[in-house]
Amino acid sequence: MSDSPHYIVFTDLDATLLDHETYSHSAAQPAIDYLIREEIPLVFVTSKTQPEAVKLQEKMGLCAPFIVENGGAIFIPRCCSRFYGADHEADYEVITLGAAYDACTNLLDSLKSRFRLRGFSHMHHDEVAERTGLHTEGAVMAKTRYCSEPFIMEDESLFDELVATVSAEGFTVTKGGRFYHLIGRNQSKGSAVQALLERAEASTGIHFSSIALGDSENDFSMLQSVDIPVLIPKHDGSYAAINLPNLIKAPYPGPRGWNAVLQELFGVA
Fold first, then answer.
1. Are residues 173 and 243 in the same domain?
2. Which of 20, 66, 112, 151: disulfide with 53, CB 3.0–4.6 Å?
3. Which parts of 30-110 are beta strand (E)?
4. Cβ atoms of 218 and 176 closer than 8 Å
5. Is-contact 224 190, C-beta < 8 A?
6. Does residue 40 form part of some domain?
7. pTM over cut 0.90
């Protein structure tokens, strides 16, 4: 694989590139360093928000497009000159694919009593910090949303009814590692990955081979959309019920498994 430089790596964050308990990416540092040296874009595809993604990019020394809120929006930073096509006065070009945040919260508000739901908009940042394990600053960033609403559901027996109800309003529900997420019906990690790949190839004239790594059912559409899908085991060692042709199953959970697979794929120690 190392013979060709034209790769893009897409990755989920929580429990994939970031450790489930500590949120550390340190075990993946060797593979991250390789991608940086080889100028292979490492694209976050996450339920996290734009401020959270930017902070993580800064921490890891990355400059690449990123996809936030389960495919709701693609942010292309000005430093990505190969992909950037907007007004160069702006810091980011933003491609919006999801529903507006106000529309998400208004719908959740109308259903919270009937389905016993609590969204991030109903929680103080201290509660978000407690439920996520984030520090207060991280919880504030997690509440700074663009086009999706995470929530908890006290009675999961009502899940199917909830999905049918929001579908009639043009929305759907996806399940992440810690929360459910209310998103636009046509919004997914996979559709955002496809949109960014099309944009990258159109703007560069290069065909990119794509790799994606994820750990949960929420990542299925992303894994389905790439050439090389990689399934990371959950923190308890089990695998999500995802079956795809050429699916690679990482040997370890979290960033350790992430690192092992990419090092093997690219033939680096």
1. no
2. 66
3. 42-45, 66-68, 73-77, 92-96
4. yes
5. yes
6. yes
7. no
